[in-house]
Specification:
321 residues
Length: 321
Amino acid sequence: MRVIVTGGAGFIGSALVWRLNQLGHDDILIVDRMDESDKWKNLAPLSFEDYVDADEFLFDLDVYQDADVLLHMGACSSTTERDSKFMLRNNYSYSVELVNWALENDVRFIYASSAATYGDGSKGMDDDTFILDALRPLNVYGYSKHLFDKYAERYRMFNRIVGLKYFNVFGPNESHKGDMRSLVNKAFDQISSTGKLQLFKSANPAFADGEFGRDFVYVKDAVEMTLHFMESETGGLFNVGSGQMNTWNALADAIFKALDRPKNVEFIDMPEHLRDRYQYHTQADLSRIRDAGYAADTTELDASVEDYVRNYLVPGKYLGD
């Protein structure tokens, strides 16, 4: 099986390559844009056939017609990016070109959408496409993903392709992401250097400090959910999460426990630029992915944080090391 992974040097992309290697696949083409970060280190332990720059890949698409699967994880995932022209070109237009090429060449197409498409959650977090027109993302990243979801629905592609709405994924191989790293990763650095963890105060009177939260899903679970669709003929748009909402306080408890340190949290004001586009509660409804045959349990928060902290962050290891 020949697999193309866009964003293959990134967080979820490199985790997919790691798992594909474990399953015996190394006929893999990595597509990405390398930069001044250390994301190249994600690739060092992995086995793959070749690497090509993301822009060059578009110019030579016909060379790759013999591919079986295209795992399209490549995107700018910054929720604070304000350059809408860049985001739409990178996350929307690029995806449109790839999906049409994949369908024309009978290449299985599985792509990364995002729970950021749900906005403040007031319209629900149902991954059925019938609610797409009602959703209002809170930032241009979420909008760029939402726009492509709507494109795929408009042209009736979801009977042949798979879109995955990833919730708050965390785990090994994310260290290059800077401010977009998970709290677990940031907390490890903070606690190691200062002995305490800073969390945002609530700017919403409906939630006490630390008592709002997200659906935190371990990257190893997200990878299993993604690869479930690789050899399947099932199409559609599916949530990828743990199926649970855990508070920031619960996440902090798990991090300090994994580090064998007493909990020490300081609440700080939420920056003004985040207050009007902040998600206070996300929780993936996994009904549709369960109906599509994915039966495995997701890893509980304490266990996933413990694995990440003790087996990767403390020893400084990457997936595949």
